[in-house]
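Course exercise 7: structure representation. Students receive a sequence record and must write out the corresponding structure in token form. The form below is the worked example handed out in class, using RNA polymerase sigma factor (155 residues). Read each field label carefully; the graders check that inputs and outputs are placed in the correct fields and that the protein name is recorded exactly as given.

STUDENT ID: A-19
EXERCISE PROTEIN: RNA polymerase sigma factor
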Amino acid sequence: MTNERFAQEIVALTDTLYRVSYSILPEKCDREDAVQSCLEKAWKRRRALREERYLKTWLVRILINECYDIHRRRAREAPRELPERAAPPDADRELHDALMRLPEELRTPIVLHYMEGYPVQEIASVLRLAQGTVKSRMRRGRAMLKEWLSEEDVL
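STUDENT ANSWER:
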């Protein structure tokens, strides 16, 4: 893959990377830092990508590692006043709030599958989990969402 094509491909995936980072990091500035670091590392390590068809999976894996690094750094810092979050449209607010209440380990596979269209096999590869574990986490997450949303009469 040429440098120009690689650059075009990663730019085309930037929106996906922002959406994935949203499932892990609550603050906009942290999400922007994670995506920027991901793109920088991907560019520097572009020769390490063995097969072009795995570019998206490879980028998401780099991003998830960056998000975890930022999350760990923030945990060691003093807490901030209030995390900033962009308010979703009213129609999706309850679903968004319920989704953000899920533990990150349940939320990430759901976001990757339902919002980004990843198959379970690819999610397992990206998160370095067994497929059964991914399915189990998605099932538990969906059950929690269903319970919370039915309590709020959203379903």
